[in-house]
Write a structure and sequence with these properties.
The chain is α+β, with helices and mostly antiparallel strands. It has two domains: 55 residues, no CATH class; 37 residues, no CATH class. It is 29% helix and 8% strand. It is built from two helices and two strands, in the order βααβ. Strands 1-2 form a two-stranded parallel ribbon. The N and C termini lie far apart (45 Å).
């Protein structure tokens, strides 16, 4: 699809996982890696506002008992660094077991 084919009356921008905490809690190297993403997000937001698009920021909001959470099986963390693929269902992840 060509960007000129978008119907602006039926289009919105949705940002997910754009969290200040990820950026500001990172060290200088992490912030340098994230800077292009932040710069592009700002550029897209400015263009969206100029076009009059609604802009939404998704927020994960889980119940206090974490019943709305899911156990994710992955081999990387948020920085795409390798981690153990299989996690024990002890401690923190115990809330995800079927009851």
């Amino acid at each position: 699809m060509n960007v000129n084919d978008f119907d602006l009356k039926k289009t919105a921008l949705l940002f997910f996982d754009i969290l200040n905490g990820y950026y500001h809690s990172g060290d200088a190297a992490a912030q340098a890696r994230m800077k292009p993403w932040v710069d592009n997000a700002v550029r897209i937001i400015k263009a969206g506002r100029q076009a009059g698009l609604p802009i939404f920021f998704a927020k994960g909001n889980h119940r206090p008992d974490n019943a709305t959470s899911a156990l994710l099986l992955t081999d990387t963390n948020n920085s795409f660094e390798a981690v153990a693929q299989w996690r024990s269902h002890e401690g923190k992840d115990a809330r995800h077991r079927r009851r």
